[in-house]
């Protein structure tokens, strides 16, 4: 393996190392994968307006998320079934996040349980929740996450049914028999049956509650005191509803382009959501973040922080915990350099004037 100089390089290594079924599951987007491509391309259409001759000898990247201080505004998104990538799976991710001083979000569909992840040592962790038809199961799981010290619930709201990921259909994707969805082991929901299409799509169709609605955000608040992040908002309308529902924050996400194809890139939807929330709750973003420059662009457009998904699983596949550490380090270093070269010494200094979007270029120029 030659020297890795950016997080995208892990993808090719993961492709070589992993069985096709696992790699395709991690990599794929929905249908034409238009949004998958767009999540990246939309970042590349945003340009910088850097400021110069500012003393940048000291740069502070620390921030606070729901009251928890972290080292940088870069966190780990929930991605399911990490032991398919590496035997250490979620343990490795948890340790790497903790070493980097940032937050890991554990998927409901992790191959390690909330208790097992907690046992890796201290760290600030969020728990991503899928709402099952059987609400008793959900209540139990939320209780276990609370007891295991998880600090917030990321409620995924874009998956009442699974998006059509054609590679998974062709591969007849199932969780390998030596693994289980550990949080559901013992509840008879930890295994995934073979199906005539994607085993995961069938599992979702059988178990996940399609009736989920805004009133369930209230229901969730009635069973937990943990703050709730609504993950999967991409419109102003839903951003306002999220604020009214009492959400502690929003994650602008299109599920890594794995659900509805032809939704805009998250970085294109971000400003609309930020404006609709009027600063009442923090807005985070995930989807296509691969560079420190992407992190900066998201913050300039109003995000309070970002989450990364695929780079973590690809790095896990390549190098386990060391790979995830390296992903976090590279993103951090790139982000710090972007701040320096833009003339920003703290996150508070990053603002809308530091970027130029396509929309800005079409509008008449303001007189400065
Ligand atoms: C995901 N994502 C996801 N989201 C969620 O709420 N629960 C989950 O279990 C999963 N699982 C999952 C598996 C894999 C392999 C991927 C790629 C994604 C979505 C994830 O949290 C996040 O929204 C995206 O991954 C962000 O986009 P990038 O960084 O992968 O481009």
Automatic annotation (TrEMBL):
Q: Which UniProt keywords apply?
A: Flavoprotein, FMN, Glycolate pathway, Oxidoreductase, Peroxisome, Photorespiration
Mind telling me which Pfam families this protein's record contains? FMN_dh (PF01070)
Gene3D superfamilies xrefs: Aldolase class I (3.20.20.70)
GO molecular function annotations of the record:
(S)-2-hydroxy-acid oxidase activity; FMN binding
Q: Which PROSITE patterns match?
A: FMN_HYDROXY_ACID_DH_1, FMN_HYDROXY_ACID_DH_2
State the source organism's domain of life: Eukaryota
Active site (record annotation): 255 (proton acceptor)
Please state where this protein is localized: Peroxisome
Instruction: State the InterPro entries in the record.
Output: Aldolase_TIM, Alpha-hydoxy_acid_DH_FMN, FMN-dep_DH, FMN_HAD, FMN_hydac_DH_AS
Needed cofactors: FMN
What is the name of this protein? (S)-2-hydroxy-acid oxidase
Native species of this protein?
Eleusine coracana subsp. coracana
């Amino acid at each position: 393996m030659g020297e890795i100089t950016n997080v995208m390089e892990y993808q090719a290594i993961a492709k070589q190392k992993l069985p096709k079924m696992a790699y395709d599951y991690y990599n794929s987007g929905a249908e034409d994968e238009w949004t998958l491509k767009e999540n990246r391309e939309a970042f590349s259409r945003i340009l910088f307006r850097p400021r110069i001759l500012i003393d940048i000898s000291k740069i502070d990247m620390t921030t606070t998320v729901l009251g928890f201080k972290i080292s940088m505004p870069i966190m780990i998104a929930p991605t399911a079934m990490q032991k398919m990538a590496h035997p250490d799976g979620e343990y490795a991710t948890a340790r790497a996040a903790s070493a980097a001083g940032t937050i890991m979000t554990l998927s409901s569909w992790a191959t390690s349980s909330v208790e097992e992840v907690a046992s890796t040592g201290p760290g600030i962790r969020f728990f991503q929740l899928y709402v099952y038809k059987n609400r008793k199961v959900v209540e139990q799981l939320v209780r276990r996450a609370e007891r295991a010290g998880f600090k917030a619930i990321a409620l995924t709201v874009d998956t009442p049914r699974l998006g059509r990921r054609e590679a998974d259909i062709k591969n007849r994707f199932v969780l390998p028999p030596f693994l289980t969805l550990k949080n559901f082991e013992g509840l008879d929901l930890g295994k995934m049956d073979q199906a005539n299409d994607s085993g995961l799509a069938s599992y979702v169709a059988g178990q996940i509650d399609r009736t989920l609605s805004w009133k369930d955000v209230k229901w969730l608040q009635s069973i937990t005191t943990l703050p709730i992040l609504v993950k999967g908002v991409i419109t102003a309308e839903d951003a306002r509803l999220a604020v009214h529902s009492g959400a502690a924050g929003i994650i602008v996400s299109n599920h890594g382009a794995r659900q509805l194809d032809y939704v805009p890139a998250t970085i294109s939807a971000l400003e609309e959501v930020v404006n609709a929330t009027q600063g009442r709750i923090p807005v985070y973003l995930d989807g296509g973040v691969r560079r420190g420059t992407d992190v900066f662009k998201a913050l300039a457009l109003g995000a309070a922080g970002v989450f990364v998904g695929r780079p973590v699983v690809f790095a896990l596949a390549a190098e386990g915990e060391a790979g995830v550490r390296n992903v976090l380090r590279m993103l951090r270093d790139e982000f710090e350099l972007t701040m320096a070269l833009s003339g920003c010494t703290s996150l508070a200094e990053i603002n809308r004037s530091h970027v130029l979007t396509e929309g800005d270029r079409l509008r008449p120029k303001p007189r400065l």
